[in-house]
Structure formats: C-alpha cells, structure tokens
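This week, work through this protein record:
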Amino acid sequence: GSFAALGSITEEQYDQTFNTNVKGLLFTVQKALPLMSEGGSIILNASIVSMKGVPGFSVYSATKAAVRSFARGWTVDLKDRKIRVNAISPGPIRTPGADGLTHTEQERHAYYEQMAAMVPLGRVGEPDEIAKAAVFLASEDSSFVAGIELFVDGGSAQV
C-alpha cells in the first residue's frame, strides 16, 4: 500500500490499501475454502504495525488489524472443519518492499540501522525467518495452535 500522513491520505490510497489487504484477502480465502481439507491451516500475513503507531502508516496499520481480526473470527467460523487460522506479524524484515522505502544504498543502510536499533534483538529479520514461522503454522507441530498472532519481530511489538 501507499503511506501518507493523516492529512494527506486520499480516498484512492485508502481504497487501494483496503481492497488489497482486506477485501482481497477475504475473497481469496473464501474461494480457497472449498478446496481445503478438514484440519487444514490458513496463515494470514499481518504486521506489528497494527499494534504500534508508525507515522504515515495509519491506513496500512488498520488493514493489518483487520487481518488479525480475521484470524480470530475465522477460527470460530471454521471450527467444525477443524481448519486452523493464524496470523504471522513480522517486524522489520529485510525485503525488496522495505528496500523500496529508500532511494540510495546509503539511505537503505541507514534505514536498516535505524530499524535494528528499535528491535530488542538488535537487528532486522530475514525473509527465511518468516518462512520458518509459516512452515511451523502449516505443520502438524502446531496442531493445537489456532487464532493466534505469531510475532516474528525480535521482540519489537512486545517491549
């Protein structure tokens, strides 16, 4: 989504962000449900920004709070099919999307240093750390885990 301060958010930005992150998710999961086996796992992509105030991220943050709410609601909706629904909430992760928030290599380095300074573990995460969390939630190792938000953020959302 696009990021903007409260006074400059446009209706187009709002619609695009909510259409992608909320409406798109809802109807994608809805279409996938007939294909899912009993006892399956749905893993939603939320974000720690749904819990933390970040300048310019209010609309994006609201969409990720909706995703978290879907995990709770759908867990109850799908209990008869024993489908587990969980959300992963990444913190600062080194990704092409995060790289796109900067314009030069120097800005990128400074951005990641600034993010790392706010993480209790002192670094930003890597995409494979998110993938490992998803593998856990998809596996039988998490067979009694449902409706949770798993923070993969080096402790950022908790302290």
